[in-house]
Automatic annotation (TrEMBL):
Residues 460-593 form the GGDEF domain. Pfam families: GGDEF, HAMP. The keyword Cell membrane does not apply. This is GGDEF domain-containing protein. PANTHER family: DIGUANYLATE CYCLASE DGCT-RELATED, GGDEF DOMAIN-CONTAINING PROTEIN. The keyword Nucleotide-binding does not apply. The chain crosses the membrane at residues 12-31, 346-367. It comes from Parasedimentitalea denitrificans.
Length: 603
């Protein structure tokens, strides 16, 4: 449609379109850069928050582990577990029922306050042991914020519990309600058949809904206890609650209106409560791309749909909690992340439209003033663009930039003419030997490769010759390099006079020459050609104050018999040439590919 429109109208229209396009592109680039910058800043912020929460979690569980290791090696715990286990064995066959009667179901202790009983007044050995140790263990859980503490015998019996819930006086290996403690017991006591060996290792049982604690969410940490003779006495276990973890993960400073950090377990269930859903621990599955990647060991930041189905910018990483891999996430709604960008986009749109309108108006008036003389010079510029260097540049009498354009165009033409001359000269120099004027190695090998491609398609043979002067080093050594250069130039002229058709001869370097002979398609032709090359050296070389003769050794190779690529063909000719040298020089040899080949010696 624009092709037939007059330039008087086309030029202003084009300038207006470009002005609008410029404004749109500028706005688009600014929008993308701003989006990228803000997403990058928020990503870095989320990563920092994630790393901060992860460090706090590691400190929290590190403190628990260190505290546990300290207590299992303390004299208090060692004596307590030893004496509680011994007292347990004195209670007879109904020891579980006996202890629950005296320490859990006993009146007048208020329900839920069973832990306040210092000792039952039953005169038993167990109650005497309980009287001496109970206050210390109560103090331990109150000062460390553990929910409960347990002493578990080497047989799996909970011989002591600070809170005296329904798990007290049961066996963790047989009671299904204490499966979490049972798993820890198997892990630390029976794992690998190492029962009775002294090895202090902490174990962690992931959070579960724990029936003896009215189905409250609970996790457990435990470690083995040994006596002075390295005999396994049992386990010290702490029941930990979720509140300290929630306190770490639900800090909202720096999270904006929609940001949150939370934990997910290997079963994809939440291990901390959501900021938006409340009590979601172990009840909300988070099966997102971020969680899947973190559970396979990766970390990063990406845009995903979160557990609410809301697009969020999600920073994620795996975190090891006492041997169990959780996922820690820091997320913020995409809408909040991009809110500043959207506001800026409105401003950029208004500004861009205003600028584009101003540019288009000014451009219209300038275009109408420039269009007419530009029409005059268009044809000249087109012809110059097509490398028509014979075109005459018209002289424009205007004194403004149009006149300067005409002068510049004249200079441009002069530069183009000179450049064309220099390019041809440089091209020749890059492809020819500076001393002899023959094609150099690069050109000769390239020509050989092109000839191979051509003759491969034609399926016809051709030959090459590699010629090397015999005893040329002695000429350089005795008469000097200047004389040697004169000999090479004279010899090159003789070689060129022997060429026919498309044949070329190139100087590969020093006193070595490559003949590519597309016109030689028979053995007899090639040998006659080689004989002429040898005979061309028979005439003496006259140089100031000297007259001498030299000879050649020539190797021939035929395509495709001796090689189908340039490198192999040249190698075959080179080996034949050295065979000619080793056999007396001043002769030619064919490349040896199928038995003994013919050779001829000149003179």
């Amino acid at each position: 449609m624009l092709r037939d429109l007059k330039i008087h109208y086309k030029f202003p229209l084009v300038m207006i379109c470009f002005a609008l396009l410029s404004a749109i592109v500028t706005g688009g680039v600014a929008y993308r850069q701003a989006t990228s910058a803000i997403e990058g800043a928020v990503s870095n912020k989320l990563i920092s928050l994630l790393e901060s929460r992860a460090a706090s979690l590691r400190r929290h569980f590190g403190d628990i582990e260190n505290d546990l290791l300290f207590h299992v090696q303390s004299d208090l715990v060692t004596r307590a577990l030893k004496e509680f286990s011994a007292a347990w064995d004195t209670l007879g066959e109904n020891k579980q029922h006996y202890l629950k009667t005296h320490y859990v179901d006993r009146d007048p202790i208020t329900i839920g306050q069973e832990f306040s009983l210092l000792a039952a007044e039953d005169g038993s050995v167990y109650s005497e042991v309980h009287r001496r140790f109970h206050s210390s263990f109560l103090s331990l859980i109150h000062t460390t914020n553990y929910y409960d503490s347990f002493l578990i015998s080497a047989k799996g019996d909970i011989v002591y519990s600070a809170l005296k819930e329904s798990d007290f006086a049961t066996n963790v290996t047989t009671n299904p309600d204490t499966a979490a403690l049972g798993n820890l017991f198997d892990q630390l006591v029976h794992s690998g058949g190492r029962l009775g060996q002294r090895w202090i290792k902490t174990g962690f049982s992931d959070f579960v809904s724990y029936t003896p604690s009215d189905r409250k969410i609970a996790g457990f940490v435990a470690a083995p206890v040994f006596d002075a003779e390295a005999k396994l006495l049992g386990l010290l276990a702490f029941q930990i609650s979720i509140e300290p973890i929630n306190a770490i993960m639900q800090v909202t400073a720096g999270m904006g209106e929609t940001g949150e950090t939370y934990l997910v377990g290997p079963d994809t269930m939440m291990r901390s409560d959501s900021r938006f859903l409340g009590n979601s621990l172990l009840s909300k599955s988070v099966d997102t791309v971020s969680v899947a990647q973190a559970l396979t060991g990766f970390d990063g930041v990406q845009l995903v749909d979160d557990y609410r189905g809301v697009p969020v910018l999600s920073a994620y990483a795996p975190i090891d909690i006492l041997g169990i891999t959780w996922v820690i996430l820091a997320e913020m709604d995409e809408q909040e992340v991009l809110s500043p960008v959207k506001q800026m986009n409105v401003y950029l749109s208004i500004s861009g439209i205003a600028i584009a309108t101003a540019i288009a108006t000014i451009g219209f008036y300038l275009a109408t003033d420039l269009s007419q003389p530009i029409v005059t010079m268009t044809n000249v510029m087109k012809r110059l663009a097509m490398n028509d260097l014979g075109v005459n540049v018209p002289v424009v009498t205007r004194k403004d930039e149009i006149g300067q354009m005409a002068s510049a165009l004249t200079e441009f033409k002069a530069f183009a003419v000179e450049r064309d001359r220099l390019q041809k000269e440089l091209s020749h120099m890059s492809q020819h030997d500076s001393l002899t004027g023959l094609p150099n190695r690069g050109f000769a090998i390239s020509f050989l490769a092109e000839t191979i491609r051509e003759f491969t398609e034609r399926k016809t043979p051709f030959a090459i010759m590699l010629a090397d002067l015999d005893g040329f080093k002695a000429v350089n050594d005795t008469l000097g390099h200047d004389v040697g250069d004169q000999v090479l130039m004279e010899l090159s002229n003789r070689f060129q006079n022997l060429l026919q058709g498309r044949d070329i001869v190139g100087r590969l370097g020093g006193d070595e020459f490559l003949f590519v002979l597309p016109e030689c398609d028979t053995t007899d032709d090639c040998e006659r050609y080689a004989q002429k090359i040898l005979e061309s050296c028979q005439s003496s070389f006259a140089v100031p104050n000297n007259e001498f003769r030299i000879s050649l050794s020539v190797g021939l190779a035929r395509f495709p018999k001796d090689g189908t690529v340039a490198r192999n063909l040249v190698r075959a000719a080179d080996e034949a040439m050295y065979e000619a040298k080793n056999s007396g020089k001043n002769q030619f040899f064919w490349a040896v590919t199928e038995g003994v080949t013919s050779n001829t010696k000149s003179g």
